[in-house]
């Protein structure tokens, strides 16, 4: 019988496809663990509130023991008031032929007002995960609109890319995913991202040695991971949803529970200048969590290829920041 008081979790875009794959897992305890009751706050645009109400009816019908209540909002200030965990999913997905950055003009305007609403009323310990694309730059916009919230509370989701990289490496080596550690996604959640195996291990051995085929890493592994979103859109006719929801669960669960000893994960966090990434940009890094805050893993040696890939992705983030400024979004 859960005794703790409920943790408030706000999910935007609650009536969308990721929302539908995410909410039931949160309510069942997979986000915050089996001892933590949750109160859900669903934010939708007015025309999708009815659909969100339908999702709430289904949540009721699951009789989840940990679900302490559901509120539905079409106002961001109300949806984020007192919230502890804010999952910013609501935004337009891309369609075939688009890059995620093409969504900036359509979606960027969502994240300033939501950042301001978080600033105005979220709980002191709020943790924010931006999923809506372009996720890194939308997180940058939200953080800029929340001057009173510590910058390290704003994160962007690259855990899906990380999980994709782990899946690809496991398939190639025949190792179980549990044998794989220290994979990194650097940079932007876009086709320029750098999925990096330089420090990764498989069963404790260097991954590059186990694979033994640099051409596969460069010509197959990296593009497969970096372009997986487009492959899913092509195959499904809609962008990834269940795997995205799964990655959001993983991101928050790792943030709250901490990373296992000797391993790290990947997340888009506000750069402190580490690895030459300009301070303030939201870039993916290798990160650990102690259950409180993310820490960027320090001191990793990078070869010339890695340096070039990271710089190229960071350059795209710089360009997106310029575009945000030109659009007056931050
Ligand atoms: N970072 C990542 O790894 C991934 C990011 N995404 C992104 O997540 C976003 C959502 O994807 P889907 O759920 O598939 O889209 P969807 O179109 O199925 O759902 C989006 C929902 O957001 C709602 N919405 C739009 N503006 C809103 C606002 N201002 N406030 C609250 N709700 C709002 C819409 O009414 C809709 O119900 C897209 O931008 C997509 O590209 C998707 C997969 C992975
Ligand atoms: O590719 C997309 O547009 C959706 C997404 O971010 C992903 O699946 O990684």
TrEMBL record:
Family annotation (Gene3D superfamilies): Lactate dehydrogenase/glycoside hydrolase, family 4, C-terminal (3.90.110.10), NAD(P)-binding Rossmann-like Domain (3.40.50.720)
Alphabetically ordered keywords of this record: NAD, Oxidoreductase, Tricarboxylic acid cycle
Active site residues per record: 189
GO molecular function, one term: L-malate dehydrogenase (NAD+) activity
EC number(s) given by UniProt: 1.1.1.37
Residues where substrate binds: 94, 100, 133, 164
Enzyme class: oxidoreductase
Binding site for NAD(+): 13-19, 107, 114, 131-133
Domain Lactate/malate dehydrogenase N-terminal: 8-147
Catalytic activity: (S)-malate + NAD(+) = oxaloacetate + NADH + H(+)
Domain of life the protein comes from: Bacteria
Pfam families membership: Ldh_1_C, Ldh_1_N
All copies of domain Lactate/malate dehydrogenase C-terminal, residue ranges: 158-324
PROSITE patterns documented for this protein: MDH (PS00068)
HAMAP family hit by this protein: Malate_dehydrog_2
Family, per entry: Belongs to the LDH/MDH superfamily. MDH type 2 family.
NCBIfam families xrefs: MalateDH-SF1, PRK05442.1
Biological role stated in the UniProt entry: Catalyzes the reversible oxidation of malate to oxaloacetate.
Protein name per the record: Malate dehydrogenase
Organism: Cellulomonas alba
């Amino acid at each position: 019988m859960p005794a703790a008081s409920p943790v408030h979790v706000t999910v935007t875009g609650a009536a969308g496809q990721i929302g539908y794959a995410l909410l039931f897992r949160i309510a069942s305890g997979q986000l915050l663990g089996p001892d933590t009751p949750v109160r859900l706050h669903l934010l939708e645009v007015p025309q999708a509130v009815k659909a969100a109400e339908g999702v709430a009816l289904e949540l009721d019908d699951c009789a989840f023991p940990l679900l302490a209540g559901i509120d539905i909002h079409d106002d961001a200030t109300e949806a984020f008031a007192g919230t502890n965990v804010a999952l910013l999913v609501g935004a337009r997905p891309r369609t075939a032929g688009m890059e995620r950055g093409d969504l900036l003009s359509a979606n960027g305007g969502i994240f300033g007002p939501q950042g301001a609403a978080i600033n105005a009323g979220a709980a002191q310990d709020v943790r924010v995960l931006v999923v809506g694309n372009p996720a890194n730059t939308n997180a940058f916009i939200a953080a800029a609109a929340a001057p009173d919230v510590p910058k390290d509370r704003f994160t962007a989701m690259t855990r899906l890319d990380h999980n994709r990289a782990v899946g690809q490496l496991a398939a190639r080596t025949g190792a179980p995913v549990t044998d794989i550690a220290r994979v990194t996604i650097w940079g932007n959640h876009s086709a320029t991202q750098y999925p990096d195996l330089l420090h990764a291990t498989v069963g404790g051995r260097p991954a590059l040695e186990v694979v033994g085929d640099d051409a596969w890493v460069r010509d197959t592994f990296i593009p497969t991971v970096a372009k997986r979103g487009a492959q899913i859109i092509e195959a499904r006719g809609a962008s990834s949803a269940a795997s995205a929801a799964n990655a959001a669960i993983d991101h928050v669960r790792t943030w709250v529970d901490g990373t296992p000893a000797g391993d790290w994960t990947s997340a888009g966090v506000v750069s402190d200048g580490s690895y030459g990434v300009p301070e303030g940009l939201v870039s993916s890094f290798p990160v650990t969590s102690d259950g409180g805050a993310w820490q960027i893993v320090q001191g990793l040696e990078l070869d010339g290829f890695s340096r070039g890939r990271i710089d190229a992705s960071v350059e795209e983030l710089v360009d997106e920041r310029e575009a945000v400024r030109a659009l007056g979004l931050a």
